[in-house]
Automatic annotation (TrEMBL):
Gene source species: Pseudomonas muyukensis
GO molecular function: ATP binding
Protein's UniProt name: ABC transporter ATP-binding protein
Domain ABC transporter: 6-238
Keywords attached to this entry: ATP-binding, Nucleotide-binding
Length: 258
């Protein structure tokens, strides 16, 4: 296998230099074009791990490598030209149109004297997400699912190699969840996303990392990670795991105790 696009190597992170490790010994890889899911209970460290991956939080020890290069040895602009991020919350729009928001993805590529830059990546992203007819519409007027599509278009206009997403399907109805994840699968990018919904993770991800109390405790294909024993031990809930009747991925049915 080729060297990974992203590699979190023996990573440790804490809130302060003297505080306890909230992430310990993390080793996580994402290959180019691979969709990797990060799962775990609430408070297990998913968001903290993602923040280290996109240079929001600096690890106490270990390295975050992008194409083999330590991201902390480069300026933020270098990373922004290669990595895009989609977070749970929608940004303030300040009266911006859909096109304006998508064009913000071009900012890392603009020079000091560039006013607007090349419009082609923005137009392409709008077309790819079916937003060309909404380009002049105010971002604030959109539904939650539509806003997520615009933010994905902004990330695609950024032309990254890696896209990091924190709970990308949060607050979306099933139709918009599936549409968003299908767009992600078709993007060709390396993808690292955290999930609460394990069935969505099983459906769309190539590999999963399971984190508990700041440590990776399981990794592999969805079938290798999402076992009944593992779910019972980590989430404290019994489940039936079988094969989805249409796809080849595992399907989880949670069992309610009488």
């Amino acid at each position: 296998m080729s060297s990974p696009l992203l590699h979190l190597e023996r990573l440790h992170w804490s809130l302060s230099a003297s505080g306890p490790d909230l992430l310990a010994g993390i080793d996580l890889k994402v290959q180019s074009g691979e969709f990797v899911g990060l799962i775990g209970p609430n408070g297990s460290g998913k968001t903290s791990l993602l923040r280290c991956a996109y240079r929001f939080s600096r690890p106490r020890a270990g390295r975050v490598l992008l194409d083999g290069e330590d991201i902390w040895l480069h300026p933020p602009r270098w990373l922004a030209q290669r990595v895009a991020v989609m977070l749970q919350e929608f940004p303030e729009d300040f009266g911006l149109s859909v096109s304006d928001v998508v064009a913000m993805g071009r900012t890392p590529h603009l020079g000091w004297l560039d006013a607007d830059g090349d419009p082609a990546p923005v137009d392409q992203a709008l077309r790819q997400l079916g937003l060309q007819d909404r380009a002049a519409q105010g971002f604030a007027s959109l539904s939650g699912g539509e806003k997520q599509r615009v933010l994905l278009a902004r990330a695609l206009a950024q032309q990254p190699r890696l896209l990091i997403l924190d709970e990308p399907t949060n607050h979306l109805d099933p139709r918009h969840q599936l549409a968003l994840l299908q767009h992600l699968r078709g993007s060709g990018l390396g993808l690292l996303a955290s999930f609460h919904d394990l069935n969505l993770a099983a459906t769309f991800c190539d590999r999963l990392y399971l984190i508990e109390q700041g440590r990776i405790i399981a990794q592999g294909t969805p079938a290798e990670v999402l076992t009944e024993q593992c779910l019972a031990e980590v989430f404290g809930v019994h489940a039936l795991v079988d094969r989805h009747p249409v796809g080849q991925h595992p399907r989880i049915t949670w069992i309610r105790h009488a």
